[in-house]
Write a structure and sequence with these properties.
- The protein folds into 2 domains: about 1-135 and about 380-415, no CATH class; about 165-360, no CATH class.
- It is mainly β.
- Helices cover about 5% and strands about 40% of the residues.
- About 35% of the residues are buried.
- The chain has a 16-stranded antiparallel β-barrel.
Length: about 425
């Protein structure tokens, strides 16, 4: 009852306003101050007296030449979103994580083309998520969370270009493997990050670092891709060295409008670990060792939305490490989505599964789950209440039998 009492007494207005009001003075807007200074307003008529052209949602108002005198190129567009989150977590037999949090995340996406077929992508991001919202311990890390302490930073940046009609190449200093996969592994849209990609364990787990990749997509739905990301590519250890934790993922898949199936082999070297969807023992890589990780994915959706039959996403992972004993781990995932059930564009999502668990963890039964209802207020605003939980998340490492339960309400504004 403690969890829901906390949620009920937190006014919705506070959940929306507190994230910005509490931290507005701390946000660093120095990088965009020059932009705001360019525009003057007549105080008596409120008319714009500046001659500079403004950038508005969707890219309208872009400059019409390439002089770059205070505006974006006509081939550059900006879109973004803001997410307000209010929620709480209750962990059985402990009070240390029972915090009700009100936070936000802001994201801006810049896309620039130089040839009409290529794309330079830059994602700017900030937020003030903290505590259980960015914790791996119980799998409560939210997909919407960003803990930049209100500092706007470059979160992703890469360049992609076609080679012929069916090949695509990516290269960038801040990219993750899954952006370069040729086949979409899951169509379930998660609340917690552990359920991303049909189970965010060793097979599909990734990290933002320097990398490059290639993909081939045939006209008949067949696709293959291979990509490499190295965690030390921006340090003195060097990219792809024996001191660098590296992920080399190769995926083969087949996709049709209503279904898809794929398999991935992700070779991870020099102690690369993944923490979103695992027990503490499940992610261990002894002595900075290597692992071979295989992920099977498949999804199916009905031809028409608004029916009782949901779309289904499935995932199964198995991993083998360099350990001399207890070297195998497994994980599975099931995601269900109902669309247009009560109103147009609404969505019901339910997911559950077993996090990555080592073969000797036989006395525990780790489980994770979530459920949500997503309501589309209009084309730009969405409200999503959700609950999530699980048990035995620590596996055999301790805290056995302990359950956890959380709830959030997220409001998303897209522009």
């Amino acid at each position: 009852m403690k969890l829901f009492k906390r949620l009920l007494v937190a006014p919705a207005a506070l959940g929306l306003l507190a994230p910005l009001a509490a931290n507005a003075s701390e946000v660093n807007f120095n990088d965009v101050s020059n932009y705001s200074e360019e525009f003057e307003i007549n105080s008596s008529t409120f008319d714009d007296v500046s001659s500079a052209k403004k950038l508005i949602a969707g890219g309208e108002g872009l400059v019409e030449n390439h002089s770059h005198d205070g505006g974006f190129s006509e081939t550059t567009t900006l879109d973004g979103k803001v997410i307000f989150t209010v929620g709480a977590l209750n962990v059985e037999e402990t009070g240390e994580t029972e915090g009700t949090l009100a936070t936000y995340m802001w994201q801006g996406n810049l896309n620039t083309s130089f040839t009409g077929d290529d794309n330079l992508y830059v994602r700017l991001k900030t937020g003030n998520a903290t505590g259980w919202q960015t914790s791996y311990t119980y799998g409560t890390y939210l997909s919407s969370s960003k803990g930049n302490a209100d500092a706007i930073k470059v979160d992703k940046i890469w360049y992609t270009f076609p080679v012929g009609e069916k090949h695509t190449v990516w290269i960038g200093p801040k990219i993750e493997n899954y952006y370069m996969h040729a086949t979409t592994p899951s169509i379930y849209q998660p609340i917690t990050k552990q359920f991303t990609l049909g189970g965010n364990g060793a097979a599909y787990g990734a990290s933002t670092n320097p990398g490059f990749g290639w993909a081939y997509k045939a006209d008949n739905g067949f696709a293959i891709s291979s990509n490499v990301v190295s965690k030390e590519g921006d340090s003195t250890s060097g990219w792809g060295t024996n001191e660098s934790a590296t992920s080399w993922a190769t995926q083969i898949g087949y996709t049709q409008p209503t279904y898809s199936a794929s398999v991935i082999l992700n070779m991870k070297y020099n102690g690369w670990t993944d923490s979103y969807y695992t027990t503490p023992f499940g992610k261990l890589r002894p002595n900075g060792g290597n692992s071979s990780n295989i992920g099977l994915r498949g999804w199916w959706r009905p031809e028409d939305a608004g029916k009782a039959t949901p779309s289904i996403s499935l995932g199964y992972d198995t991993s083998e490490t360099d350990a001399t004993t207890n070297s195998n781990t497994t994980a599975y995932f099931v995601g269900l989505t109902w669309e247009d059930t009560f109103t147009p564009d609404d969505k019901i999502g339910v997911a559950f599964g077993q996090p990555q668990t080592r073969e000797d963890e036989t006395t525990v039964d780790p489980i994770a789950w979530e459920a949500y209802y997503s309501y589309q207020v209009n084309d730009s605003v969405n409200v999503t209440p959700a609950i999530f939980g699980g048990s035995d998340r620590a596996g055999s490492a301790g805290r056995q039998g302990r359950d956890h339960l959380g709830a959030v309400v997220e409001t998303t504004f897209k522009f």
